TrEMBL record:
Polar residues composition bias: residue spans: 1-10
Region (Disordered): 1-20
Name assigned to this protein: Phage protein
């Protein structure tokens, strides 16, 4: 099910001015296959996959489930109607008590 979410654009993003915008898409927890695309140092963080209606950029921050998620990988599937992004939790590595997907 597609839902609205907000994206905060970093000041060094080259396609949209710094600030906040709305986007729409499907967000779900990343699996091991998706984590192959995560930069080596970010694989210890909880991660999500975002299938978005509008383009995002590296470093954008997605607000989802009262958490901030930083985009670390992008793929353009606009020919199929969406943009793919892998985002890691913006604060702290994953752990057994992280609880980020407990209520998802």
């Amino acid at each position: 099910m597609s839902r609205k979410f907000t994206v905060t654009h970093s000041p060094d993003n080259d396609w949209q001015p710094e600030g906040v915008s709305n986007n729409r898409g499907v967000i779900y927890p990343a699996d091991m296959d998706a984590l192959q695309f995560a930069p080596e140092g970010t694989r210890l963080h909880d991660a999500i996959v975002v299938l978005a209606a509008r383009r995002m950029a590296y470093g954008d921050v997605v607000a989802w489930h009262n958490e901030s998620w930083r985009v670390v990988h992008l793929q353009d599937y606009s020919d199929y109607g969406y943009y793919y992004a892998l985002a890691v939790r913006a604060k702290g590595p994953a752990g057994p008590d992280s609880g980020v997907f407990a209520d998802a």
